[in-house]
Structure formats: C-alpha cells, structure tokens
Amino acid sequence: MSRYRSSSNSSRWVLHLVLGICAALIVLAIWNMIPQAKLMDSNDMVMTVNDHTIYPMEFRFYVNRFLENYLPVYGEKTFSQKNLFGGFLSTVSNYVVQNYVMLDWAEENGFTLNDEMKATAREQLDEYKASFDSEEAFQNMLSETGLSEEIYLQFLEMNQVLSAFDDYLYDSELSPYQIKDEELLSLADEYGIYGAEHIFFNMGETDEEKAANKEKCEEALARLKSGENFEDLMNELSEDPGLSTYPNGYTFGPDSNFDPTFYAATQNTEVGHYSEIITSADGYHIIKRIDPNPDDARYLIRVSMSNKEFADRQADAKVVYSPRFGEIEFSDFHISTETAE
Asked: Is the pTM above the cut of 0.70?
C-alpha cells in the first residue's frame, strides 16, 4: 500500500513538472511575441567597467561626441554599413573603458570630485548653454540627441577629475615618476627617447627640384666630411622651419609626431655622430644624434611610464557588455539626411 502511494505521488509530481514546463514555455513564447524596446531606448545597462555601469543615455553621449568628428569625414552611408558601424562602436566603447579605468586610477590616488571642480564644470556648462539662442534651443538639442543636462554635466565633472590627475602624473615636482639625474639618459634610451639636430632640405615638387635639393644635401654632407662644424652648417643651410624655435635640436620618443624614417635613423646613429643622407616624406636630412633635452626627456619618460601602467590597468579591467550590444545600430543615434525627404 505504501509503495502504491509512493508511486502515485511520484506520478503527480512528474505531471506537475511537465505542466510547469509547458506553462513556462507558453509564457516565454508570449514574451517573445511582445515587441521589446531597443537597447538604446531602454533603461538596461549597455556595458560595465569594473564597478561602473554605463546606461544608454550616457553611452549615447559618447557616441554622439564621436559622430560629430567622424560623420563629416566618412559620411552617413559609411556608418549605415553594419560591420563598419560595429568597428566604430568598438572604438567608442574602448574610449569609455579608458575613461573609467583612468577615473579609478585617479580615485586610488585621492583625486575625487570636489566643490571647486563642480563649480568649474557648472561654469563650462553655462558657457555652452549660452552659445545657444535660448534655453529652449539648448533643451531641444538635448531632446533631439537623446541626452540630458545631467549627463552632460556628469561628463564635464569627470573631465575635471581626470585633468587634475593628468597634471599630477606629469608635474615635475608632484609626479609619482621621479627621475634622478644619473638615471635620466639610461631611462631615455630604454624608452626610445632621443635627441637630434638635422640639416634639412625640402623634397621639392618637380623631379628637377628634387634632384637639385638632393644635390644640395650631398654638398652639405661633403663639407661635413671635410671637417666643417655641423651646427654652423645647420644654421647656414637648413631649411627646417622649426630651427628658430628649436635651435638646440629636438627631443622625441616613439609616440612623438616624427617621421618614422627620421626616428629610425636617429636610433641607429651614435650620440655625437651624424648620418648619411636620409630621405623622408618631407625631404632630405643629415641627422646628428645628441643627448635629449633633460626637461623634455623627463616629461616623455613620465608619459611612457604612465602609459605602460595605464595599459596594464586597462588589460586587467573587468568589462562586461550587454548581450544586446550587437543590436545597436547607426539609426539609434542619427536620422539620415541623405534619404530624408
């Protein structure tokens, strides 16, 4: 009898389980039939960076800021292509990650939003609002772009914190990356930071000009090899427009805005020696490697050190994207004027 009751209870339990699963499937099917709000029109998270949650309105702000710069260059048709817009979103989301990784780093060093920063951010917002014809025009802009005044102010406040932290990292007295005089040159060499002077002749437009300018450079090289002083010839012959601003040469690193050919030639030349003729996109150079300027080198070393630590922190950041991140489309941010009537 007891076995019979046990079997009956088991059957009823299985029946209840089957009915429950069926009910759940019916509810799920009905839910899938109900149109869901697009991610960028919802209150769901777009992504998280460490302990920070980024919601659609904030992410929309970042995307719109990037579009302001990218749209005039690439046009709307480019962004209408899903694969290309996906790459663009990766660029934007990476920027978001960098901002919050830097913000966490700043907070670890005691840099948080204070009253002075809040006041400055508010002044910046007021100045921006004053550039519109009216308060209504400003609010219309926010409405059209799906933003809020609060989000815009939040971004300005974050910039205040990051700007203060940036000053701290590179300030000669406050920076955590203090560099002793005796280690300056070895660190500069370790981070690929060099000093150089050069005798420069422009490339020229026509073949005749190119040949003539290269011949000038060859003549200068011959005079050097005959024993003339490099700096004297540089001041006499060089067509470098920056010579008057940097009469004692340049200090630069791998991330500086220098021609890669110029950088490599300097790297491959010993200090105190000069190169053969080097042809870059700009023209013809004879490069003399010198010790980097101490102040400039210290700054560039600090930049390199901080960049390395920042890259490590970014690699360790915990970043989670919404399962619906791939649904985000260009049309979520911009109404095409190319197809509008």
From this structure: yes
